[in-house]
UniProtKB/TrEMBL annotation:
Pfam families membership: FA_hydroxylase
Region (Disordered): 251-270
Name of the protein in question: Fatty acid hydroxylase superfamily protein
Subcellular location: Membrane
GO cellular component, one term: membrane
Length: 270
């Protein structure tokens, strides 16, 4: 129950900090990949770039950076308000801070489960965004960037950002999670989403993490590879890019059509 007076100073500090953290992570991680590859190795894209012949125009780069900054501020605003409400006694997000309350086994197991649930919910939300009406009204803004760049990460319609955030936060209202688990998983999701949009050919040492080419191909072929980190969801639904299938912006459904178009360069994901 909300039995406290509104503490505006506390509210502003928490909401402000929450907005700042997301935007700071974006600029530090995306800035790092931008300088390391696009600035320092911009003259040799064939050695590192997923799409060596395709680059965003400078105005698209700026637009993506501004949009991602605005969207992470909106996301931070929502999260900050949830944190404030929680600290004021709102008990709906089932969070805990003492490992002893549930034990280590539960805390570690629920952290892994949180990651899998958030990843699965992101897959289904993204897949829903590829239904024709939602794609044409909302999701197409993210798909304007056929070549990706680290700043494209949440360059999308704000309604899409809010839908993704709602889906990702859903598990927090269903079962108890340690506060640190939530921070770690959300941090992972943001950082790896930036890496997946970097446009740089990268393969993670983390065994369950898909290569950056997996989401980069989503931007090239549109209705395929809807997953975020785990390729599992695409595999079980048959929506992982396959050889001998033709994909494209007008080819909805996630499974492509028989035909070789786009398959000449087919490389199986590691
Ligand atoms: Zn998409
Ligand atoms: Zn994307």
């Amino acid at each position: 129950m909300l039995d406290h007076e509104m503490d505006w100073l506390m509210w502003a500090s928490i909401v402000g900090a929450s907005m700042l953290v997301g935007v700071a992570v974006l600029w530090i991680v995306a800035g790092y990949y931008h300088v390391r590859y696009y600035v320092r190795r911009g003259h040799e894209p064939e050695t590192w770039k997923c799409q060596p012949k395709r680059f965003l125009r400078p105005d698209q780069q700026r637009q993506a950076a501004i949009l991602s900054t605005i969207n992470l501020s909106i996301g931070g605003f929502v999260s900050g308000n949830l944190v404030y409400a929680y600290l004021q006694g709102w008990e709906l997000p089932k969070l805990y801070t003492e490992v002893a309350d549930y034990g280590w086994l539960y805390t570690l197991g629920s952290t892994a489960l949180l990651f899998v649930l958030m990843d699965g919910l992101a897959y289904y939300t993204h897949r829903a965004m590829h239904l024709k009406p939602l794609f044409k009204r909302i999701h197409r803004y993210h798909h304007r960037y056929i070549a990706t760049s680290p700043f494209v990460v949440v360059a999308m319609h704000p309604l899409e950002l809010l839908s993704l955030q709602a889906a990702t936060f859903l598990p927090l209202f269903v079962m108890p999670f340690h506060v640190a688990s939530v921070i770690v998983v959300l941090g992972y999701v943001l950082v790896f989403n930036i890496i997946d949009h970097s446009g740089v050919r990268l393969v993670s040492r983390i065994p369950w993490q898909g290569p950056s080419m997996y989401h980069d191909d989503h931007h090239v072929y549109f209705h395929v590879n809807f997953g975020q980190h785990l390729m599992f969801w695409d595999r079980i639904h048959g929506t992982l890019r396959r050889e001998g299938r033709r994909y494209g912006v007008d080819n909805f459904g996630g499974k492509g059509k028989p035909g070789a178009g786009g398959s000449e360069d087919f490389v199986k994901y590691p």
